[in-house]
Amino acid sequence: MRLVLMGPPGAGKGTQAVELSREYSVPHISTGDMFRAAVASGTELGMEARRYMDAGRLVPDDVTLGIVRERLSERDAACGFVLDGFPRTVPQARELQEVLASG
To answer: Rounded CA gap, 71 and 46, in Å?
Structure first.
């Protein structure tokens, strides 16, 4: 199962994602968690994301998409996932569609 939850801040996406993740035994993948993990692991994309985050700026689509690609290629996401907070833009949605079609 591949599920994407979208909505405005405070709509309950995270709460629903946790429940769905638990119910279907797939990982709950949030944008914030992905960024923090990439920064903590010291990946090139993580360090680039950190520069934007430290400056209080949004992480650009190309960096975000690279981090998402890396995360979705991990073993635990092979049988499905619940995405929370991604995609946020039309280009991100198009890229996600391509990533999922090729995977």
So the answer is: 12
Q: Residue 20 pLDDT more than 90? A: yes
Kindly report the backbone phi and psi dihedral angles of residue 12, in degrees, each rounded to the nearest multiple of 5, phi listed first: 100, 15
Q: Helix and strand tally (H, E) in the chain? A: 5, 3
87 cis-preceded (ω within 30 degrees of 0): yes
The pairing of strands 2-5 and 28-30 is: unpaired
Per-residue pLDDT of 82-99, as tens digits, reads: 999 899 889 899 999 998
Residue 85 · residue 30 · CB < 8 Å:
yes
Contact 35, 49 (CB under 8 A): yes
Long-range contacts of 55-60 (CB under 8 A, 24+ apart): 59/35
